[in-house]
Each structure stands twice: as structure tokens, then as C-alpha cells.
Design brief:
The protein has helices at 22-25, 35-50, 62-69, 79-102, 115-119, 121-136, 159-169, 206-212, 224-236, 252-259, 274-281, 293-300, 342-348, 356-360; strands at residues 15-20, 54-59, 108-113, 140-145, 174-179, 184-185, 197-198, 200-201, 241-246, 263-265, 284-285, 287-291, 310-314, 322-327, 332-337, 374-376, 383-384. It has 388 residues and is α/β, with parallel strands linked by helices.
């Protein structure tokens, strides 16, 4: 057992997300599920649940399984072929999990997500409520990206990042990324015999990121170690610990508990900051608010955004949508959840709260963006929904 981390502590590690890649689940030669491996995993999940822990699974494999059933040499050669393979393969994937977990008398529930489900606040809350209800019934949620409707431009990117976003959604305490390597090394061990295993990462520094190397490195998994580090950053900033462990042999979680072999990324934020960590991960802004210099200084000082400081609104966006906040010169200050629609913002921008009743027909809802719903962010790389 690791001296620095105990997965079996069900009080501090109450909720666990396990991510499984196609290379672990599907035999590359036959294109079929590795049934014995999956049954062993089901037994591990049953053991975790028996000691009071709740488990979600983020699983790849639908495209690989569907490609085999449709006799496609390369199901990812086009978006439409990949989506057709996913549509067929998702049935096979869910059936495989259902059969494996039935042996442990556990109910599996399929949950398919798109990035929009986690970007839109109402859909995000609905998804979270569904997961919470499944936990109440003792079911194991099997989660995957809804590849049949997602486009190449609007995706999570890979299932490592999806798993990290699910860990946020579920307020998980631990994310386990099962890989084809036993953790992070100082360089690619398949190419460098002097590569040193890194058992613990307290902060993801530039040096740690450099150790991941190119995402296409052999032995680093289909998503690449770079994507795993990106997922680890998302999760740890949300208050969730992360483990990268070798999943090629049966019972990988049990092996980590006994040996501690893997890479542990320690969470480094408290629960109150998790909401702002979620805001940082949003990718599709519904619009933009421009603010004057005084409002910009107030936001940097941790204050809310008031209508008086808004100089422009670009939408359309609805109440509760994610918007970017920029200066009049175009500098991105941050992002937040807006309390008014774009048309309402246009009516009240530049005005004091005492004027809102006459302009809106009701007293108003306070700040346009409350400080609890805002996070500073200097990036200008996000795309708006209109652009995508």
C-alpha cells in the first residue's frame, strides 16, 4: 500500500472515477472485448462499493467495437464512419459491461455526454442530478462521449479530459486513469533507458509537462501522456486526486493499493474553489461582455461585475450562460455565468442598479456576474458558439 495515499479510506475517498481506454478494453487482434479483464474490473468495483465508495466509469471502446462489427478497416477515416461505428459499438460496449457487472449483482447505467451537456449550466445540473440519483440506487454509471452526435470541432478532445470533467461534475475525490504504462516518467521509457519513474506530483510544473514529450510517443497510450497531464490539471484544480496506473493486467486498482506503483497527482484546491475550476474548463462561450477600466480593476480585485461598468454586450446569450469578459481594448479578463440575457444587458449597461426597474420592468437580479460565478483568465483562445 502507498505510504502517502490510501484509496481504501472511504471517508476521504468517497467517490471514484475510473477511466478505461480502448487499448485496455478491446483486444486489438480480434476487435472484441477482453472479457476476463472486464470481469476482474467488475470485481474490483464491487469491492470498492462494498466498503462504502461510489464508482463511475468513463470507458472508450465504442468505435473500436463498432468498427469490428461493421467490418471497417479504419473506422476513424471519416467523421461519419466513426459516428456510425460508435452507434453500433455503444450497444456492444454497454452489453459487455452489463454482463460483467451482473456477475457482481451490480446494475450498470449508460450515460452519454456531449461537451454541451457540461457547458450549459442547466444541462450540467441535470446531468449531476442524474448521477446523484444513480448513486442513491447503487448503480454504476458507464459514461462515454456521445460520439454519434459530437462534431470534430466541438468535442472533449479525448476521454482523459472527459474523465476529468466527469470528476468535476460528480465532485469526485479520486480519478484513476488506467493506461498502458505505470505512470509518468522523466522521459519516454520506451526510448530512454535512463527514464526515471515519478511516483508523486504535487504541482504540475513546466518541468513535469516537458517530461510528457510528444503526445504520439509509443507506450504512452492512445490519448498520450500530454492529455493525461491536461486531465490531471483539470481534476486537481477541482479538488480531485488523480492516479495514473498500469491497467494492462487484471485488477490494476488492487495492484496500486498493494504496491503504490503509479503516479499520484495530489489535489491542491479546497472545495469552495471547485466551481471556479469548472468555469476555467468551459470552452464554448455564448457571448462577450466588454467592460470599462474601472470594472476591470474591480474584477481583478475580486468584486462582482455591475451593469454600470459594462460598455458592450455581444450575444445572443441567456441568463446563466457562460460569457467571456473583455476590456474595451479586447483583452480577455476572465469568464463567468451571466445573470441577465444579452438584450437585458444592452438595456442596463452603463446604468446604476436604481435605474434597472424602469429599464427592465422589474427590480433586477443584482450583479450582472456575481464574483462567485467569475474567474480571471487571460486566455483569448476560446471560441464562441457563433464561431463554431
Amino acid at each position: 500500500m502507498s505510504d502517502i495515499f490510501d484509496i481504501s479510506d472511504s471517508k476521504s475517498i468517497r467517490r471514484i472515477v475510473i477511466k478505461i481506454g480502448s487499448a485496455l478494453l478491446v483486444n486489438p487482434e480480434s476487435g472484441r472485448v477482453r472479457d476476463d479483464w472486464l470481469k476482474a474490473l467488475a470485481a474490483e468495483v464491487a469491492r470498492l462499493m462494498a466498503r462504502g465508495q461510489q464508482v463511475l466509469i468513463v470507458s472508450s471502446g465504442a468505435v473500436a467495437l463498432g468498427g469490428q462489427r461493421l467490418a471497417l478497416d479504419n473506422p476513424r477515416s471519416s467523421l461519419s464512419r466513426a459516428q456510425a461505428a460508435a452507434a453500433v459499438g455503444q450497444i456492444a460496449l454497454a452489453h459487455a459491461y452489463e454482463e460483467a457487472f451482473a456477475g457482481q449483482k451490480l446494475q450498470v447505467a449508460q450515460v452519454l455526454l456531449t461537451i454541451g451537456d457540461l457547458e450549459d449550466r442547466q444541462r450540467y445540473l441535470n446531468a449531476r442530478a442524474t448521477l446523484e440519483t444513480l448513486f442513491e440506487f447503487g448503480a454504476v454509471a458507464l459514461i462515454n462521449e456521445n460520439d454519434t452526435v459530437a462534431t470534430s470541432e466541438i468535442r472533449f478532445g479525448d476521454n482523459d479530459r472527459l474523465a476529468a470533467r466527469v470528476a468535476q461534475l460528480a465532485a469526485a475525490d479520486l480519478l484513476v486513469l488506467l493506461s498502458d504504462i505505470d505512470g509518468l516518467y522523466t522521459s519516454d521509457p520506451a526510448k530512454d533507458p535512463d527514464a526515471i519513474h515519478i511516483p508523486l506530483v504535487e504541482n504540475i510544473t513546466a518541468e513535469i509537462e516537458a517530461s510528457a514529450g510528444p503526445s504520439a510517443n509509443a507506450g504512452f497510450g492512445s490519448g498520450g501522456m500530454i492529455s493525461k497531464l491536461a486531465a490531471a490539471r483539470i481534476a486537481t484544480e477541482s479538488g480531485c486526486n488523480v492516479i495514473i496506473a498500469d491497467g494492462r493486467e487484471a485488477a490494476p486498482i488492487t495492484r496500486y493499493e498493494k504496491t503504490g506503483r503509479g503516479t499520484l497527482f495530489l489535489r491542491h484546491t479546497s472545495v469552495p474553489t471547485a466551481r471556479k475550476a469548472w468555469l476555467k474548463t468551459l470552452q464554448l462561450a455564448a457571448g462577450t461582455l466588454r467592460v470599462d477600466a474601472g470594472a476591470g480593476l474591480a474584477l481583478k480585485d475580486g468584486k462582482s461585475l455591475l451593469a454600470a461598468g459594462i460598455s458592450g454586450a455581444q450575444g445572443p446569450f441567456q441568463r446563466g450562460d457562460f460569457v467571456l469578459v473583455k476590456t474595451d481594448s479586447g483583452e480577455t479578463l476572465g469568464r463567468g455565468l451571466v445573470a441577465y440575457t444579452s438584450s437585458e444587458c444592452e438595456r442596463i449597461m452603463g446604468t446604476r442598479s436604481g435605474e434597472h426597474s424602469a429599464l427592465l420592468g422589474y427590480p433586477g437580479r443584482g450583479p450582472v456576474i456575481h464574483r462567485d460565478n467569475f474567474v480571471l483568465d487571460g486566455s483569448e483562445a476560446e471560441k464562441t458558439r457563433e464561431e463554431t
